[in-house]
Specification:
The complex is a heterodimer of chains A (about 160) and B (about 180).
Chain A lengths: L3 H11 L17 H22 L5 H24 L1 H19 L2 H25 L2 H5 L4 H10 L7
Chain B lengths: L2 H11 L5 H24 L2 H19 L8 H23 L4 H13 L9 H9 L4 H11 L5 H8 L3 H21 L1
Helix pairs in contact in B: 1-2, 2-3, 2-4, 3-4, 4-8, 5-6, 6-9, 7-9, 8-9
The chains are: A mainly alpha (about 160), B mainly alpha (about 180).
């Protein structure tokens, strides 16, 4: 520690009215300095206790948890895309085939004919609803003739 | 304060059996100087108590890793000054008051002390100190009340001895002027 005289000499030169005024003004609660070391020991012990019990809330644990969740998602995604989905689709196909085989053949034929008839009607209506002349206006006559000649008689409108 | 005894405290702190006893001794050794530095900076006892506790908790947490390339005394003071300046910075951010208003608030806190006597020179001195900018106030308190050599202060505040000397002289003159005018 620098000699007190040196500090006082410096002050005497710079601001002499401040010499020997270093008395204490503020008050401290009674017993404060006696109790402070014990309070601090209690505080650090409490802090260390808390830091050991909050392991599951620590950032390191969160990182491990996040990594585990990500790896799990990746693993199950891969597994699901490679196997179960295809197996499931195959199982549905198998079930549908079994169910259809139980039906009488004439019911199945009637269903297919009705479905085709519906589709053909729907397509024809769709074309008629447009202007056919507009649709074929850019096609040369020779090309239309050749196309009509190539069609089998059954498919002629 | 001798470096040998600080050395002993460090050794005892590193031993789990004597750790708490060594820390208690260390607190007893430095608490008053640290408290009065902080108290004169923040004025209120409650605030000073918070900053002192934070300082010593940081000392506890860092003491095992203390590398001994600086003196323990300087290291503890550095923690205390950093804690103190951080506290004042936080207060400024929280408060909507301007800097001069904040100085005025601290002066009002001094006047609110139950022992305050406007006629006494030592109280005028406390009021004058609150008019100084934070770092200059720190330099003045360290030199005037704690009688810290410029060399040590230079290591603590990482400022040249010349700059610290100039800052202290300037502060002392400002305070003297304030006292003469009030």
């Amino acid at each position: 520690m620098e000699k007190k005289e040196t500090i006082q000499d410096e002050l005497r030169e710079v601001a002499p009215s401040l010499l020997h005024q270093q008395q204490s003004t503020f008050q401290v609660p009674t017993g404060y300095f006696e109790q402070l070391p014990h309070k601090l020991i209690a505080a650090v012990n409490k802090e260390e206790k808390n830091s050991s019990t909050i392991f599951f809330r620590s950032p390191r644990w969160t990182v491990f948890a996040a990594a585990a969740v990500t790896i799990s998602i990746l693993f199950f995604s891969l597994y699901y895309f490679r196997n179960p989905l295809n197996e499931e689709t195959g199982a549905v196909d198998q079930w549908a085939k079994q169910e259809i085989s139980k039906l009488p053949e004439e019911h199945v034929s009637a269903y297919i004919d009705n479905t085709n008839a519906f589709l053909q009607t729907a397509t024809a209506e769709k074309i008629e609803s447009n202007d056919l002349a507009v649709l074929i206006q850019d096609i040369p006559h020779e090309e239309i003739k050749r196309l009509l000649n190539d069609l089998p008689a059954t498919e002629m409108p | 304060m001798t470096s040998t005894s600080d050395q002993q405290l460090l050794q005892e702190f590193r031993n789990p059996i004597t750790k708490e006893a060594a820390f208690t001794m260390l607190v007893k050794k430095y608490q008053e100087r640290i408290y009065w530095l902080i108290r004169r900076m923040v004025v209120s006892h409650e605030d000073a108590n918070d900053v002192v506790q934070n300082t010593f908790i940081r000392v506890w947490n860092g003491l095992e890793k203390f590398r001994e390339d600086s003196q323990l005394y300087t290291w503890i003071y550095r923690i205390a000054t950093n804690e103190c300046l951080s506290f004042l910075e936080q207060q400024k951010r929280k408060s909507l008051a301007s800097l001069s208003e904040k100085d005025q608030e601290r002066a009002e806190q001094v006047k609110a002390d139950s022992h305050f006597d406007a006629q006494k020179l030592e109280w005028k001195l406390e009021l004058a100190i609150q008019q100084l900018p934070e770092r200059q106030r720190m330099v003045f308190i360290l030199r005037y009340y704690q009688e810290m050599p410029y060399e040590q202060m230079s290591k603590l505040l990482e400022t040249s001895e010349g700059a610290l000397k100039a800052s202290y002289h300037h502060a002392a003159k400002k305070i003297e002027q304030y006292i003469l005018n009030h």
